[in-house]
Amino acid sequence: MTFADRVINFNNNLHFDNKLPDGIAIMNPFVHESVREIASQFYKKYYDDNNQRHLVIGINPGRFGGGLTGIPFTDPKRLKSECHIAYNGPETHEPSSVFIYEMIKAYGGPERFYSKFYFNSAFPLGFVKMDNKGKEVNYNYYDSPQLIAAVRDDIINNIKAQIALGVATDICFCFGTGQNQKFLNKLNEQFQFFGEIIALEHPRFIMQYKSKSKQEYIDKYLHAFAAV
Fold first, then answer.
1. What was the pLDDT predicted at 110?
2. Any residues with CB less than 8 A from the CB of 214 and at least 6 apart, and which?
3. pLDDT tens digits for 48-81?
4. What is the three-class DSSP state of 17?
């Protein structure tokens, strides 16, 4: 089995059956045949080998990116324009995906970047809740102590599963210099998953609050990724 085969098998068998806190729902894009097909095309295109990659851990998939394509930090627009993979669903726009693909372009393009790095998340499925206006919004695994308690064991098992795919364990990269970094560092202290976790500001944070300094953050990412 290639790296791609292992990722595809992992994705297609994702499920979560435990009880969640009231008002929180799970978002599993891989229950849809179309998403499984799109994600399979992506991983077969960029990961159909047995090369070792370095893992980049996000938080959990969002509704307009990985929640639709099954590919972390890849919204439908970038899937079509940057990865040249057909997509027939709603063409959504995710700011994190915009940043990531600008960074990937600066790195040398998807082929070069994905030959060295592999994106996943602390929790591989998404969460949603209804806001006070009745609108469905993304929810992070660390947004409530109750949710952390409900998914902690699954996050541990997920990280073990990601390592088993064949990623390097000397250095891991983490998106999020706040709660995601704090939580992953605590787990790493306990389980010694990785020799070092290098945290980078989350793409969503950059695009929402630091967009005028976007190039500085792209340069920071490139400098960090040059370490491996």
1. 98
2. 99, 102, 206, 207
3. 999 999 999 999 999 999 999 999 999 999 999 9
4. coil
DSSP-derived 3-state class of residue 200? strand
The single-letter DSSP state of residue 19 is P
Q: Indicate the SS3 state at residue 42.
A: helix
Cα gap 173→38, rounded to integer Å: 25
Q: How many domains does the chain have?
A: 1
- 50: three-class secondary structure by DSSP: coil
Supply the DSSP symbol for 44: H
- Write the DSSP string, 58-99: ES---TTTHHHHSSTT--HHHHHHTS-----S-----HHHHH
What pLDDT shows up at residue 6?
98
- What's the Cα-to-Cα distance from 183 to each of 95, 140, 156, rounded to whole Å? 24, 12, 11
Range of the domain at 140: 3-225
Structure tokens at 78: 């970038």
Tokens read off for 176: 């999020």
Cα separations in angstroms, 21 against 45, 52, 148, 151, 195: 38, 37, 10, 11, 33
- 3-class SS at 109? coil
pLDDT at 131: 86
The alpha carbon of residue 214 and the mean position of all alpha carbons in its chain are separated, in whole angstroms, by 20
Q: Coil, strand or helix: which one is 137?
A: strand
Strand order through the sheet with 167-175: 117-121, 53-58, 167-175, 196-200
Identify how many contiguous H helices and E strands the chain contains and give both numbers.
Answer: 10, 7
Give the CATH number, domain containing residue 199: 3.40.470.10
pLDDT band, very low/low/confident/very high, at 89 (cuts 50, 70, 90): confident
